[in-house]
Amino acid sequence: MDTKIEAIYYPDLTNNCECPLFVVPVTAGFPSPAEDYIEGKLDLNKYLITHPAATFFVRVTGESMIDAGIHPGDILIVDRALEPADKNVVIAVINGEFMVKRIRMIKSKIFLMPENKNFKPLEIENEMTFEVWGVVTNVIHQL
């Protein structure tokens, strides 16, 4: 199945998402929660969202972006304030259908490229309705 958008969400910036930030390196395990090692608090909203008014989240389905680290059920953070550039992963709308692909601009042509060898690139042709809704900046998935 091609990688498509299952749902769209907007961030709730009214709540801080602050977690302790430890300064000791961690090789395998969790550092001692001793106060001496805490550098401060890390607000994930500030770390992951550059343009709050232009940011939204999407949950994806499909496997066409597996090799880019995007799996079914993942949540993508998308920034509409960023100008899409060659090789960005983007949320695109083709003929009314949302999808996640890597955009490639080759010799004045636009392609939406999958990141899975089992899927084919899609060349954007004149008769298609095409729009980039935003650039994917982060992917959130469970291990």
Describe the structure.
This protein is mainly beta. The protein has 2 domains: 4-10 and 55-140, Ribbon (Umud Fragment, subunit A), CATH 2.10.109; 18-48, no CATH class. Helices cover 3% and strands 44% of the residues. It contains 1 helix and 10 strands; from the N terminus they run βββαβββββββ. The protein has one helix spanning 44-48, and strands spanning 4-9, 18-22, 38-43, 55-61, 75-79, 89-94, 97-106, 109-113, 122-123, 130-140. Strands 1-4-5-10-6-7-8-9 form an 8-stranded antiparallel β-sheet, with no helix packed on it. The chain has a two-stranded antiparallel sheet with strand order 2-3. Strand 8 and strand 9 (122-123) form a beta hairpin. The longest helix has 5 residues, at 44-48. It starts with a strand and ends with a strand.
